[in-house]
Amino acid sequence: MQLSRKADYALRAVAYVSHLKKNELGSIGRIAKARGIPREFLAKILKELTRAGILVSFQGVTGGYRLSRPAKEVSFLDVIEAMEGPVAVNLCVDGSHCGCTQEKGCEIRSFFVKQQDQITKALKRQTFANLNSGR
Amino acid sequence: MQLSRKADYALRAVAYVSHLKKNELGSIGRIAKARGIPREFLAKILKELTRAGILVSFQGVTGGYRLSRPAKEVSFLDVIEAMEGPVAVNLCVDGSHCGCTQEKGCEIRSFFVKQQDQITKALKRQTFANLNSGR
Q: In this complex, how many residue pairs, one in chain A and one in chain B, have their CB atoms less than 8 Å apart?
């Protein structure tokens, strides 16, 4: 019941980029060093964040990454889902069905549906504009 | 960010056992069938739940499992931790430290510390006595 290391690194990287000044770009080297992320892994993550439309990539020696939209429009949920797919705190709440015979009236599922709702809302509410400290 | 299948099965098994009448025992076969859990996997899980002091095992043809204590004293957290160890929603909140250079004043960690607190409290509050339906 733990966020993947990949998603954790993605949050750190986007947090770094969200603190950049206007027109400033974050290079892989700078982000890796500032946030303690292995460089190769970070390169892969940044590509995926770009593909997901969260970051924009600029090529060249002075290239790097910036957010594709205002930080207040990028939530923790956006970043986590770009890395892991839809958040589902238990197998039975993944949007399809639980795959067991107890789905209807299952007392365990109803608990996790509530938890799922709460964590999803919290992750959606938490944007990179309302982080509580700088880089 | 998902509960393991093993922990989910453990919750289902304990839920089944918690609905047994006094002096009634739940056999592996009955639990497996009633809760849709593969028998071999269930056997392993029941052993671990017994070792963790959540279930008591009775040997023999009429043997089986029952709770070691009243259902109101067995929480979802007890069962999940018996399967997965301490719950930590992100690497950085596992009780030691996050392993990165940003721990102090990290804006991501403070978010997950809050989530960790909420989910842990909810899992602790949810016991097998206050499940909202029968078996």
A: 101
